[in-house]
Amino acid sequence: MEAETIGVLRDRQGRVRGLRYRQGGEEHRLRAVASIAADGRHSGLRGEIGTGLRTLGSPIDVLWFRLDRREDEPTELRGTIGRGGGLVAINRGDYWQVAFLVRKGTDEEIEATGLPAFRERVASVAAWTADRLDQLRTWDDVKLLSVTVERLRQWAVPGLLAIGDAAHTMSPLGGVGVNLAISDAVAAANLLAPDLLRAQADPDRFEKVLNPAILDRVQQRRQWPTMLTQRIQVLGQNRVIAFTETPPGRSLLPPAPALALLRGPIARMLPRVFVYGIRPERVAG
Ligand SMILES: Cc1cc2nc3c(=O)[nH]c(=O)nc-3n(C[C@H](O)[C@H](O)[C@H](O)COP(=O)(O)OP(=O)(O)OC[C@H]3O[C@@H](n4cnc5c(N)ncnc54)[C@H](O)[C@@H]3O)c2cc1C
């Protein structure tokens, strides 16, 4: 706890054999046969895997702020898409954590047009926010969260495996990033547990019994659900941003065939993707 990983330890063959970390202002070393990089979208350990990132592109960024929540208001997640942006409000008890979706790279332009114009834009998308947008007093109340969708070409090298956002950065669309990160962790645990249990009595044996191919097997198992989910997120993001930029006078609704698809097969498929996840993982007994 309260420790920051600052690098890896390698043996003579270049295999990762543990981590260097800083805790209480001091540097320490932790030797390990296998290390898991679960350090998120700005992972410093990715560089140690060094196989390059595949970037899928993301046309959206999120402007993140809080607005007061009254007790008599709905408790569930609130979401609206309109001309000018998309708004998702998460119930955090006495406040709403609001994510306002805008086109990537437009934050400076939005700031330059001023806070009153931004408040108007938010209110035009979600009218219920209008009576409290004066709570955004300065731009310090609005944080930019840059959205990226990318993944490592290779998730593991001998002794080091990346999982979760460190292996594949997810968009907030659909709220699936946490599911995927946990699924990776469960898959890794299921694959590593038998060797760990065999070496339980003598931890030094782990090095002898651990099959080095197991770290790669986590990627083999989790790569296609990740790729498919990211592809769906990218398609969804493109659709959302196109919707928010519909010129005045043009219908906000998609053409009838697309609408039928959205209400039919796609509506049936989305809970599978976003609620249960593609290829859900279960902890092996
Ligand atoms: C704006 C936004 C909103 C989102 N909303 C949702 C949502 O509603 N639902 C959802 O499912 N997903 C959401 N996502 C995606 C989700 O946040 C990620 O996919 C998920 O958190 C990934 O989990 P993780 O454990 O891999 O990484 P993280 O949750 O990022 O955890 C990484 C951890 O590693 C720690 N760490 C980093 N570097 C070091 C270091 N050097 N040493 C030690 N520790 C370190 C960090 O402090 C952090 O605790 C959102 C993403 C964005 C950008």
What does this structure look like?
The chain has helices at residues 46-49, 107-112, 115-125, 177-198, 205-209, 213-244, 256-263, 265-276; strands spanning 4-10, 16-23, 26-31, 35-37, 53-55, 60-68, 78-82, 85-91, 95-103, 143-146, 150-152, 156-157, 160-162, 168-169. It is α+β, with helices and mostly antiparallel strands and 285 residues long. It folds into 2 domains: 4-54 and 151-276, FAD/NAD(P)-binding domain (3-Layer(bba) Sandwich); 60-146, D-Amino Acid Oxidase, Chain A, domain 2, CATH 3.30.9. The chain has a 5-stranded antiparallel β-sheet with strand order 7-8-9-6-10. A 3-stranded antiparallel β-sheet has the order 1-2-3, with no helix packed on it. It has a 3-stranded mixed β-sheet with strand order 4-13-12. 27% of the residues are buried. The model has no long low-confidence stretch (mean pLDDT 91). Flavin-adenine dinucleotide binds at residues 4-5, 38-41, 44, 62, 99, 145, 147, 164-166, 170, 172, 175-179, 181.
